[in-house]
Amino acid sequence: MTSQLNHLPSAKEVGTYDPATLASNFSDLHPPLTHRQAMIESQRCLYCFDAPCVEACPSEIDIPSFIRQISENNINGAAETILEANILGGSCARVCPTEILCERSCVRNHDAECQPVLIGLLQRHATDHMQFDGHPFKRAATTGRHIAVVGAGPAGLSCAHRLAMLGHQVTIFEAEQKPGGLNEYGIARYKMTDDFARKEIEFLLEIGGIDIQYGKRLGDNLELANLHKQYDSVFLGLGLGASRALGLTGDDAPGLMPAVDYIKTLRQTDDLGSLAVAKRCIVIGAGNTAIDMATQMARLGASEVTLVYRRGVEAMSATDHEQEIAKANGVRMITWAQPDDILLDSQGRVVGMRFAKTREQSGKLTATGETFEIEADAIFKAIGQGFDGESLSDATAAELARDGERIHVDDMFRTSLANVYAGGDCVKPGQDLTVQAVQHGKLAAHAIHQALTAKQEAA
């Protein structure tokens, strides 16, 4: 964890930012719409009958309908339309890459103004301002069935909520001490402010019929074999919990750590000024986690932040929008370079990194033979998360068919084990998006319900 950075000064000691500036730097990245702005924006929508934005939405939200409801000042109706399709619609409105999904597909992009309807901000407006007397969705009659869900991330929570709606009892087993998964621990703090992840889950749980047990980790103090015997069905929403290693000497040196570990600490702290800050740091990677890490370190007061990627800009998985956020915060980006050696001082602490220049030759990445060095007080790895194989270490779990390292599922999210389903980042194929994980959980819940109902009718 951040013990790897104990030798570095805190944000207070760096002295670049005062508390007010720090607070401002980690306030909403995109301020919410006012009521007037939302009304005006909602009236720009053409309410397409066969809307391409819906086709582009992984959770199949009826976007024209909820925007029309906003234009009619029916905020609760709009929120219910969103949440019926995506119970985590509030967090998805904040973190979903709308610029490459629904908003890219908006027909307004082909209009003279070439400006899509601000679907993400409208979705946030509806979910932020809903005022229900009680939970908007009611539980069906109790089925007497009890389902185990492993993981309280977006996939697991979505699955649990839909199962509860369908009348089942659900117990969620969560390894951490808080629910939410990446929404709680892995999203940039300026994207999800004011403890929103916790509030959203409290709302989700109001449906009833869902119990969460914390500190339960599959492969440690929880076995799939027992869950398989004790529950009518099991849903695995394990996520990707293992940070990939660089494979270089010094991978565990003070000053080098996974970006996700630092972001987790940053999201949980009450005092931003107490966080260790590298005045000069390197972030290795090209995805949204790399962008989030680099941007947040710059906002904490680092004077030099360099993001390095082994391929070209066009191959970066972070969207153009995310890249612009980093650049606007002074992050320097270097492409076509891969880690070659970790530079350490006499005490074994990070002082920089040597990189090998790369190029693509016959479709393969190769080193050119040239190298260069960058001085740094800390290096953050954001080269992807891998599946934690330890979670499937018991005999029953080991029987699960795999697609590479991830769990194999069919179109109904069924694994190779009877009555065991999986979804979210731990399965393929996928884009590793929150909104996609929510959809997986919802569809898996319907598949579980269908299978249990068929079994009951056959009995």
> Strand pairing plus helix content: what structural class?
alpha/beta
Instruction: Give the C-alpha Rg.
Output: 23 Å
Number of helices: 18
Give a short account of the largest sheet: 5 strands, parallel
- Within the largest sheet, what's the order of strands? 3-2-1-4-17
CATH class of the largest domain: Alpha Beta
**In angstroms, what separates the terminal alpha carbons?**
52 Å
Uncertain residue ranges: none
Mean pLDDT: 93
Shape: globular
Instruction: Say what the CATH topology of the largest domain is.
Output: FAD/NAD(P)-binding domain
Number of domains: 3
**Architecture of the largest domain, according to CATH?**
3-Layer(bba) Sandwich
Sheet-strand content, in percent, reads: 15-25%
Could you tell me the number of beta strands? 17
Task: Give me the oligomer status.
Answer: single chain
Helical fraction equals: 25-40%
**Mind telling me the CATH superfamily name of the largest domain?**
FAD/NAD(P)-binding domain
List descriptors:
alpha/beta, FAD/NAD(P)-binding domain, five-stranded parallel sheet, 17 strands, globular
Task: State the gist of this model.
The protein is α/β, with parallel strands linked by helices. It is built from 18 helices and 17 strands. The chain folds into three domains: 7-27 and 243-384, FAD/NAD(P)-binding domain; 43-129, Alpha-helical ferredoxin (Fumarate Reductase Iron-sulfur Protein, Chain B, domain 2, Orthogonal Bundle); 146-241 and 387-458, FAD/NAD(P)-binding domain.
List the helices and strands and how they pair.
Blueprint: H1 11-14, H2 19-25, H3 35-42, H4 52-56, H5 63-71, H6 75-85, H7 89-95, H8 102-105, H9 119-129, E1 146-150, H10 154-165, E2 169-174, H11 182-185, H12 196-205, E3 210-214, H13 224-230, E4 233-236, E5 242-243, E6 256-258, H14 259-268, E7 280-285, H15 288-300, E8 304-308, H16 320-328, E9 332-334, E10 337-344, E11 350-361, E12 364-375, E13 378-382, E14 385-386, H17 395-398, E15 402-403, E16 406-407, E17 420-422, H18 434-458
Helix pairs in contact: 3-5, 5-6, 5-9, 6-9, 7-9, 10-18, 14-15, 15-16
